[in-house]
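[step 3/7] fold_predict: job queued, chain A
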Amino acid sequence: MFRTRVVATGPELIREGVRSLEGVLREAIDSARSEIQILAYTVTPSALPLLQRLRQAVRRGVRVTLVLNNPDELDGTVRDFLSQLQGEQPDRVRVLGFGEPDRALHAKVVVVDRSRALVGSANLTGGGMVRNYEVGILVEGEPASMIARMVDRVAMLASGYACRKSSSRSPRISPTPEAAS
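[step 4/7] structure written:
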């Protein structure tokens, strides 16, 4: 058995049983018990409040896997945050970069505890979470588990990245030794 709910951004879309995408995402992160998987094209500084919630989840013992299209293109503030998060909990936080030539990771997916998946059109940006008109669906049950396995496969295709601050104080994301070989 599974359950679905429609989520959206844009005030004209959030009504009549349609929940705010950002609100559903906050609740999902806050309620995670063991694992959060995220596929995202990009993340901007306007998503830092959500990243802070990820940090709180990691501190509760939740494992986080974040696969981004091209982490090297992230804003320095976001790279710095991810660097700190990996430094605090390297055994619980994986940041992976998909950046392959002629291919892009354009999926926007958040899976929590392999039992709930939020799939939609919104990037982790101010526009995607609040300003744009975006639509998504929250699924619970077996479809969420299937999506979690898909995220596992995408993560295997991605290169491992270690988010590190460079010596010039400008944070950067560099391939991990495994990804470089």
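[step 5/7] annotate
The longest helix spans residues 142-157.
The chain has one domain: 2-174.
exit 0
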